[in-house]
């Protein structure tokens, strides 16, 4: 389903750009201090996503309460959830189903794997992470991010434009205050409407609702541990550059073959002409192909 591809593409892009940020970090880049002692940030969503969310920060605990409906090409989904992130545990509450599960924290698993590396391996990881982020953007048809400085809601922000998306991230906090733009024809706008710092945080906002008891998801936790190990094994590999280049080439070839097969099937069915209301230049399809190339390369590198 195209809806799932859009969500996966967005998530994968965030992961790859996050890995690229490792190169600029010192010590263990996965051990980050809390951005606030306490804070409450309200957000609104627009575009293909409609709704609101509120994020509560208290020490090293972050709780996002979200109610958002996403619609694209007739498909839709509702996200009515609470995600509570702590250093050792991440709890996901599905308010629609009145159920919850928890796992360990993937970022903590990455930090643990990073601590196992030798100084030489850590240096190699930072170098390869920077290269990986740049190559992933290239595979998805992107270019070097445009970075500028500004303010939003009277807070200093770093403004990054890349692949049709613009984000405004609070400097020194690592908290996104605004995001606008689209990918694969999906418009995704997120805007902080109110920011309050140094305020009391109600205890019930940092825990599942009464009556919902989280269950440990062993399978998901195992997958996160395995993924953290795979990422570090990949990035510390001296032959990482060669393997990534080959993965990108294979993904590009597979995407072109799939595109050719799809085109041939359309001609065979007499549907080579674009449907009414669809783009005539095929730009949306090309964008999807480039995103798929990047995703295929990431999957191959990480053995997904």
UniProtKB/TrEMBL annotation:
Residues 243-252 have a biased composition (Polar residues). Residues 241-304 are annotated as: Disordered. Residues 257-269, 276-289 have a biased composition (Low complexity). Residues 1-25 form the signal peptide. Keywords: Signal. This is DUF4412 domain-containing protein. It comes from Desulfoferula mesophila. The lineage of its organism: Bacteria, Pseudomonadati, Thermodesulfobacteriota, Desulfarculia, Desulfarculales.
């Amino acid at each position: 389903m195209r809806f799932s591809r859009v969500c996966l593409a967005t998530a994968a892009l965030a992961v790859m750009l996050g890995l690229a940020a490792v190169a600029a970090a010192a010590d263990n880049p996965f051990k980050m201090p809390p951005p606030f002692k306490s804070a409450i940030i309200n957000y609104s969503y627009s575009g293909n996503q409609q709704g609101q969310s509120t994020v509560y920060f208290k020490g090293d605990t972050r709780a996002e309460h979200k109610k958002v409906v996403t619609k694209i090409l007739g498909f839709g989904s509702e996200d009515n959830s609470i995600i509570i992130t702590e250093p050792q545990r991440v709890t996901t509450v599905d308010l629609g189903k009145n159920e919850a599960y928890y796992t360990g924290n993937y970022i903590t698993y990455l930090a643990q794997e990073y601590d196992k590396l030798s100084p030489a391996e850590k240096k190699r990881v930072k170098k390869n992470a920077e290269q990986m982020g740049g190559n992933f953007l290239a595979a998805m048809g992107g270019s070097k991010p445009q970075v500028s400085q500004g303010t939003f809601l009277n807070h200093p922000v770093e403004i990054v434009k890349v692949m049709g998306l613009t984000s405004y991230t609070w400097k020194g906090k690592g908290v996104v205050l605004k995001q606008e733009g689209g990918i694969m024809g999906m418009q995704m706008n997120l805007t902080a409407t109110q920011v309050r710092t140094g305020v009391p945080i109600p205890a019930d906002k940092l825990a599942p609702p009464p009556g919902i008891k989280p269950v440990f998801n062993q399978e998901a936790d195992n997958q996160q541990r395995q993924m953290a190990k795979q990422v570090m094994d990949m990035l510390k590999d001296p032959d990482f550059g060669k393997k990534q280049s080959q993965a990108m080439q294979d993904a590009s070839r597979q995407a072109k073959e799939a595109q050719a097969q799809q085109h041939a099937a359309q001609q065979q069915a007499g549907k080579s002409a674009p449907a009414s209301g669809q783009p005539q230049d095929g730009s949306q399809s090309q964008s999807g192909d480039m995103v798929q190339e990047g995703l295929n390369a990431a999957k191959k590198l990480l053995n997904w």
